[in-house]
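Sample 3 of the quickstart, ligand S-adenosyl-L-homocysteine:
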Amino acid sequence: MSGRLAVVGLGPGAAAWRAPEAVERLARASDLVGYGPYLAMVTEEDSPAVRHEFDNREEARRAELALDLAAAGRDVVVVSSGDPGVFAMATAVVEALHAGVDRYAGVDVSIVPGITAASAAAARIGAPLGHDFCCISLSDVLKPWSVVERRLEAVACADLVVALYNPTSRHRPWQLGRALEILGAHRTPDTPVVLGRDVGRDGESTRVTSLGAVDDGDVDMRTVVIVGSTTTRAFVDGRGRTWVYTPRTYPAAD
Ligand code: SAH
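Result:
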């Protein structure tokens, strides 16, 4: 007897930013699998399911356990913050499914999308992602730092707005500075930078600074950093509120 498994995006935190399909899957689940702080975003009222808590680095084991539970007939939800497909659990689950195609043949697997941190922070400040943009994780736990640097160079040359996830941690104190240095070689110091911290959660803040003025101390692992392109602008409206946007039109190509 096989059950089902959903990899669910919880969104950034606020209940209003959680998809109805995610709410429904959580309410019906028999088992929740996830990293402790993400499981803590799900109340007993949201889901009375049995909880299987994992360390952040045990993604492969977490995915396999979830699939095994579903193969045994359970109704399993793997939780991720934000969107499960953005630096989160959906990939680990699909990888495990690929590795065990026969074993998990009977399991009905689905991915329930969520609002990712970059979209949430962008919404708080205007429309910095309104044109071509990309997301890069500065974590070098799973990929070599040389790959991160190469991508940042390409982003800088392509003049893309970039949302930096996992910008810093106790073990990675210098990477953000290096990333901003690479981008700064192609953008002016007054390029707008948005620091969205705990967006959609208690104590949230979204601040605007500039490429030449980012203070590393203002950025931690709960922050997403959006660095504008050469066309991104900031202004203060008549009510004193700061807005950041990337215009829809481009200077004429030369
Ligand atoms: N799947 C998540 C991202 C997980 S990677 C998503 O789609 O949002 C973890 C990184 O995401 C953090 O280091 C931070 O850079 C960013 N992040 C996640 N939630 C956030 C929030 N509520 N506010 C600001 N940044 C957040």
